[in-house]
Amino acid sequence: MRKYFCVWKKLAVLAIGSYLSNRIDAVSFFIGKIIRFSFFLLLIITIFQLTPTLAGYTKYEVILFFMTYNLVDTLPQALFRGIYLFRDDIRKGNFDFILTKPINPLFYSFTRLTDILDIIFLIPIIAILIYTIFKLAVVITLTKILAYLGLIIVGQLIFFGMNIISMCITIFTMESENIIWLYRYSFALGQYPPEIFSRAIQFFYTFLIPVMIIIAFPAKALLGRLSLAWGLFALVYALVFFMFSLVLWRFSLKHYQSASS
Questions:
Q1: Judging by beta carbons within 10 Å of its beta carbon (0-12, 13-18, 19+), is residue 191 exposed, middle or buried?
Q2: What is each CA distance from 26 to 29, 36, 111, 253, in whole angstroms?
């Protein structure tokens, strides 16, 4: 663990130095993220000036879904953004050199790029999330908070599994970018309460593309609207999904054809 932490720290320092080398681009990009985030938050507040509830949820409950979405989306984007370089590694043959390094290629592929802007962006996200929790009309207990945090971790396992599967597809075919964008656009649905969608859509994005498990389940657990059975289902689903992705990754490495071949 110490070895991998040292590797991640070195890669993070190099990535942050690369970002800061062009400060105008970095600052303008960060301002753009803040503006987009603020406009959507303003949209939610505006909607509740016209209606007291949305699919049975109050204003701050809907904001909880939105903030949970931003948290679970930004956290891996900040720390493990290297996934977006994997396609070029395969296309240019750089993955051959990664395989020769004395480090797990999956770990290196994920951690080679750390986004300092997203790390900074996590500060207002967490601050607004805490403020939202205090404004909720429901009673927040320690059990609900632990369930919320636990399901956040469960959702991250699924998130990593999805990205590992996209990497496996990239090894076999270069046409994996559309699959990644399908996942990204589908993930954005999680910023809304699932009850605003039809049952068919809820089923699809719970069992087939488990966006609801990643985002809606933690928020509903904090609100006391998620049963223990659904919580256990999410845990089992995440473990099986993640293990499947690792098995598929090992299978893909065995069938990887290097640039020299």
A1: buried
A2: 5, 16, 20, 35
Instruction: List pLDDT tens digits, range 124-159.
Output: 889 999 999 998 888 899 999 999 999 999 999 998
- Measured CA to CA, the distance from residue 131 to residue 198 in angstroms comes to 31
The answer to whether 44 touches 66, Cβ cutoff 8 Å, is yes
**What's the pTM?**
0.86
Instruction: Show the tokens assigned to 128.
Output: 């607004």
Task: Name beta bridge partners: 57.
Answer: 54
List, for residues 85-104, the tens digit of each pLDDT value.
888 888 888 888 888 888 89
Residues constituting the chain: 261
Calculate the CA dihedral of residues 117, 120, 126, 129 and round it to 10 degrees. -50
Residue 109 reports pLDDT greater than 60: yes
**DSSP 3-state assignment of 83?**
helix
* Residues 219, 241: Cα–Cα separation, whole Å: 21
Q: Which residue reads 């488990």 in tokens? A: 210
Compute CA distances 253 → 11, 30, 256, whole Å: 23, 36, 5
Phi–psi pair at 57, nearest 5 degrees: -110, 145
Are the C-beta atoms of residues 214 and 159 closer than 8 Å to each other? Answer: yes
**What are 6's two structure tokens?**
């040292």
pLDDT of residue 213: 92
Q: Quote the tokens at residue 49.
A: 């000036």
Beta bridge partners of 54: 57
CA dist 149 and 158 (Å) reads 15
